[in-house]
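Issue 218. Parser rejects a valid record. Input:
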Amino acid sequence: MKYLYVDTTSNFLYTGIVDKDLLLCERKIRFDKDLSTMALTTIVDMMDENNIKPNDINKIILVNGPGSFTGCRIGITIAKTYAWSLNIPITTISSLEAMALIDDEYDFYVPMLDARRDYVFSGIYDKDNNQILKNQYVKKSIVETAITNMSDNFVFITNDELDVNGPKINYDPNILKIVLKYKDKESVNPHGIDAEYLKLTEAEEKLNDNKC
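Output the parser choked on:
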């Protein structure tokens, strides 16, 4: 069984192919504004360099947010089209779930994405990747208070320039570990896949305010 992993929810392309319990290849490249033009080409090149044909992939594991609006759409478009056109099973996971799966040195892991104005996308996971605090759009201080009241043995994970109250490490995905964790997760209809933004759009927030 070969699994293709795709994550474009930030300025980085994180992608790789896992065959059974082995990581065959991976790419971790910061593209910034070039992500939309380079993501698919890089994935194709990775497969070509390893003599892997599109039909060799048995399942796609897609990270569908939260994260960059444009980044999420890029990965979703690539993965949905691939899965639908070749009838390949596809499943989705949260970027925060993936970020929490880096190692098992700490008791708790706090993935954090900058949502601006002192808000973040975050959650809290234990070392077995069980979710302790649900993924949400929340004030950074609330997450900091929650984790410091919970344990001294924790770490924040982020690639953003965030000042946090505790130890912090950069996110460098363990693609093999992520794929092995989620490879058996239930597949979904590719047409039903959308981005997991967590935060309502401005129009949705105003609509909710008007209902109050």
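Fixed in the parser; the record now loads. The domain at 103-169 is CATH 3.30.420.200 (Nucleotidyltransferase; domain 5).
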